[in-house]
Amino acid sequence: MKAPASPMLARLDAALAASVHPIDAACARAERAGFLARQGFFDAANSDLAVLRAEFAQRPAVLVTVWVCIVEAWIEQYSGRVSASRDKMLRAQALSAAAKLKPLQALSAAWLGHISFVQDDIEDMAKYLALAFQLAAPDHHAARARASMVAASAYHFANRLDLAQPWYIRAREHAQAESDDAALSVITFTIAGHRSNHALRASIFGSVDTEEARRAEAWVSASFNFDQWVGTVYQDAYVQMLRAAVYSAQNQHAKALAVYEAHLADADRQGLANMRSTHLADQAWCRFHTGDVAGARNDANVSASLLDPGMNLEDLAVACGRLEQVFQVLGNVDAALHHRQLARDYWARHQDMQRLVIELLDQALKPETK
Known about the structure:
This protein has 18 helices and no strands. By secondary structure, the chain is an all-alpha fold. Helix 6 runs parallel beside helix 8 (141-157), helix 10 packs antiparallel against helix 11 (210-230) and helix 11 (210-230) runs antiparallel to helix 12. The relative contact order is 0.08.
């Protein structure tokens, strides 16, 4: 699949064509490969990386090696292999620090902050964000856009949209400064994701939040439309899972079920297999409310079997909370009580993490907010 036209891609192509020194050309090619990877065009990104590996196989250059590590990390991450991505990005961080390549050290630190947040490693997230902002020049838009987006996402995760908003604005400003469609896409997707999660959680642990569900639906549509416009390919099933969650939160069970049935397998292949238990629990709820009792029971049993303590706490809490509801309506009282207790425990730990996120971020970002 050919990557669509993009101002950033055009700029990188022009830089590559104008480069005279091999190192300059290699950096432009690497950055180009990175942009393609973040848009989901892995074959094209790997093609650029193959050129770099062949050219520098006999005469390695640390600058090029670090760039290759960063792009490899992006390919791993956007393919759903987060642990492998972390290993690659840690190598980029170590090499760039040893060689005193401050811009790439800042960029890899910003992305390590992102990866740490995805893995629920809040202490490392705060540490790497502080490092990224310390090292990144004011006009290092790539590093500052990513670090700002992570800060915004973490505050939003902690249910503090008031603290997240200024960081979303910063992230957009830096992404727009270099016409980074991939970064702008992620910002919109991140807001959609948090709003969808909040709406679904409210339907499980509280009362239906009609306003939040309506806002979530609008942001999911915005994310889908933006990705269609700029040609992002890696997030299509991700966005569909958000859409299903919003429909479920709005008690539009038939719509939610149709989306799950059409896109759940793709979501697993695109890197969301770790959330399969959560998705199946909600799918079971939707099946029950559309009259498919046997299907609901089957989905609930499979979901329960897939629960893994290594999952994110929020996903565990949501899965167990939904399973409690499903088993309750199915008349399986013992299973309902079991998952109720699990849901309460995971939810309490999730809330502890939210408080920790705010505490650590406030400290780590203090120099940036003075």
